Amino acid sequence: MRKKKYLVSFPRLGNYVYPIYAMLNRIVDKEITDILMPKEMTSKTIELGAGASPDFVCLPFKYNMGNLIESLNQGANFLLQAGGGCRYGYYAEVQEQILRDLGYDFTFVTLLEPEGLDVLKLYNKFKLLNKKLSFAKFAKEFLLAIDAIRVLDNVETYIRDNYMYEVKKGSFDKIHKEFLDEIMKVTNLTKLNLLKKNTYTKLKNVLIKSNTKDIIKVGIVGELYTSMEPYSTFFLEKELASLGVSVKRYTTVTYLLFIKKWKIKKHIKYANKYIKYALGADGTESVAHTLELIDKGYDGIIHIKPFGCTPEVNAMPILQKISDEKNVPIMYLTFDGQTSMTGIKTRLEAFYDMLVMKREKQNNVTTLTSVKQAKETNTLPYKKDDYEFQN
Ligand code: SF4
């Protein structure tokens, strides 16, 4: 499929692929470079990735490997990898070596340095794809992509927070789809600001239910990759939506890049009854956000992590202590290449029914519907495929 000197590709992570793809298209020299959107995740992705990865390595490594192999098989010869953060910071070198051992020939570029983002070094890496790229142009396009990611996160967070409360089914999905189409076409800050303004207006105009007391609310905390790549959790948020559960999660790229660093001390202070030091990766956030969600009246918490994720394993006994003391249920889900979708679905339904029973007992009412009753009466609020937001 490669017609030019370079065919560039990168691993998938939720809908962030759209602003990244758009930015690459704006900065490369089109005479010599094409951009390949990484394939949608399928079971083949994890099969390929797991087959080429050491068994013990954590799940994001395997998914990334699957994405990269699929792109290489389509002719990609210039691969971008994010790098940075936890063990993830060491993935790139190992992945590059494994792929070379498998016989692929490519250029491999890691975007983040071990100490974080270095814009000058990043610029020099992108110059490989466009010798005429000036620093000013690169900085402009890079900042535009960052802004686009920020807008994407704001739009998706708003939709996630309000999805269960829309009066007309599909209102948010329609806006979300239009937004994703448009974000690919944004070429400057003025257009992005216009898109942002129009999308926010549309979102605010969606009619929201006035009576929301019968809706069960669940917070999702845990490791970043499983939080942001829906395929890795079998579309957990989608499954919850099909049960009528309102979902809150804080972890987004904007959070990780711009908020996390400044909030860590606040988080430790807020959760000082349970933690004295940072737990590494997203462990501190898992604890602090759990407390915050409980304080905000969420019915339950779902903690997610890839198999073997040490920072999240460290957070789990603390979360259990919080759960016992605050009397709020926490369900722990661990994902690896072998996890079964049916198993996850069954556990989610059981967790939901437990939250319903707990709420009814607390309020001394029986107004909520169990999953079994909803299935029998065909009153589940969303069919899974109706929910297009997490795609
Ligand atoms: S946070 Fe967990 S899953 Fe992510 S790189 Fe670190 S150990 Fe692996």
From the structure above, extract its key features.
3 domains, binds iron/sulfur cluster, 10% strand, Rossmann fold, alpha/beta, 15 helices, 391 residues, four-stranded parallel sheet, single chain, globular
Which secondary structure elements does this structure contain, and how are they paired or packed?
Blueprint: E1 6-9, H1 17-27, E2 33-35, H2 43-51, H3 59-73, E3 78-81, H4 88-101, E4 107-110, H5 119-126, H6 135-162, H7 171-183, H8 189-205, E5 217-222, H9 224-228, H10 236-243, E6 246-249, H11 253-270, H12 283-295, E7 300-306, H13 310-326, E8 330-335, H14 341-363, H15 371-376
Parallel strand pairs: 1-2, 1-3, 3-4, 5-6, 5-7, 7-8
Helix pairs in contact: 1-6, 2-3, 3-4, 6-7, 6-8, 7-8, 10-14, 11-12, 12-13
Bound molecules: iron/sulfur cluster.
Structure description:
The protein has 391 residues and is an alpha/beta fold. It has 3 domains: 6-133, Rossmann fold (3-Layer(aba) Sandwich); 144-210; 213-386, Rossmann fold. The protein has 15 helices and 8 strands. The radius of gyration is 22 Å and the shape is globular. The protein starts with 5 loop residues before the first strand and ends in a 15-residue tail after the last helix. Iron/sulfur cluster (SF4) is lined by residues 58, 60, 86-88, 223, 225, 281, 306, 309-311.
Based on the coordinates given, report the CATH architecture of the largest domain: 3-Layer(aba) Sandwich
The termini sit apart by 26 Å
Strand order of the largest sheet: 2-1-3-4
**Helix proportion:** 40-55%
Give the number of domains.
Answer: 3
Run of helices and strands: EHEHHEHEHHHHEHHEHHEHEHH
Could you name the ranges where pLDDT drops below 50 across 5 or more consecutive residues? none
The largest sheet is:
4 strands, parallel
| Alpha carbon gyration radius | 22 Å
Level-1 CATH class name of the largest domain: Alpha Beta
Instruction: Choose one word for the global shape.
Output: globular
Q: Beta-strand percentage?
A: 5-15%
Beta-strand segment tally = 8
Quickly give the structural class: alpha/beta
Task: Quote the CATH topology of the largest domain.
Answer: Rossmann fold
